[in-house]
Write a structure and sequence with these properties.
The chain is of the alpha/beta class. The chain is built from eleven helices and eleven strands.
């Protein structure tokens, strides 16, 4: 790929460099930073994808132009200007945010065995990204996000999730209480994870065919009304003197237990190797 590198004052770079997370969300865009994550975005179904890469990666990204992506080459310092910092590692990609799933699409899912995650008010983008990554790794593909949840496609959420946010069925709920009722009517059992000695220890929980796991916020856990809205309350027993686990860690433990201990859960669908580039990213 012999395209001359763009200069820092190129209008395309200047505009992208001026966009911050709040601007990206308002304009319906997302940014994937780093070579591996940029490739994952280009391999997804995201529309209007543009990749900006350092000259050393130009040939590696050139084949994505055949998929309709625009590939721009820019010097390292110009990339830092766009990213706002030097984390880009030689590549970043911008695309339209994928459409979120609807409650109706989840209710119409014919699979008899499903686990979904419900997050009423997760406000830490790193925790949200880590939950996305754990869910995808353990074969859970549906996550409900309450109105108070942070941005599911922020730069850091996307980065911490290692692109898992792009492969999950995400539902941004406008009325989470009503959506939980709809899930229950569709055969889901609602299980709330809590810090309560009277709750069922996680290892004693036998997951039903359809389970919705409800996780509280980082600071305050689950609000009382969510506690009472659940069919079951679960807790992770901990050593004396330890009062809680990090939200993302607790979610990973609970999801692992549910997925491993349900005879009715389909095995995780392993991600495919990139169709264009056979060499794994370093």
């Amino acid at each position: 790929m012999n395209t001359p590198p763009l200069q820092p004052d190129d209008p395309r770079l200047v505009r992208l460099g001026s966009l911050r997370d709040r601007d990206l969300r308002r304009e319906g865009l997302l940014v994937a930073e780093g070579r591996w994550l940029a490739r994952r975005l280009l391999e997804s179904s995201a529309a209007e994808a543009v990749a900006i890469v350092a000259p050393r990666f130009a040939d590696e990204f050139a084949p994505y132009a055949d998929r309709g992506a625009e590939i721009l080459v820019a010097a390292e310092e110009a990339l830092s200007q766009v990213a706002g910092f030097a984390f880009h590692r030689g590549a970043l990609a911008v695309a339209r945010r994928p459409a979120l799933a609807t409650v109706e699409s989840v209710l119409a899912d014919p699979r008899p065995r499903q686990t979904v995650v419900v997050l009423p008010d997760t406000t830490n983008v790193e925790n949200l990204g880590a939950i996305f990554r754990s869910a995808a790794a353990l074969g859970v593909d549906t996550i409900f996000l309450g109105e108070q949840c942070c941005d599911e496609f922020s730069r850091r959420t996307l980065r911490v999730s290692m692109g898992a946010a792009l492969q999950l069925r995400l539902v941004r709920s406008g009325n989470l209480a009503a959506d939980l009722d709809a899930l229950r009517d569709a055969g889901f059992s609602i299980a709330a994870t809590v810090l309560d000695s009277s709750a069922t220890p996680l290892m004693q929980f036998c997951p039903p065919e359809k389970t919705a796991l409800l996780f509280g916020s980082e600071a305050d856990g689950l609000a009382e009304h969510w506690f009472h809205a659940a069919d079951t309350q679960l807790t992770i027993p901990m050593a004396e003197g330890v009062d809680s686990l990090n939200l993302a860690a607790a979610a990973a433990i609970a999801l692992w237990h549910v997925q491993q201990n349900s005879l009715h859960t389909d095995p995780p669908r392993l991600s495919k190797e990139p169709k264009i580039l056979p060499n794994p990213p370093k």
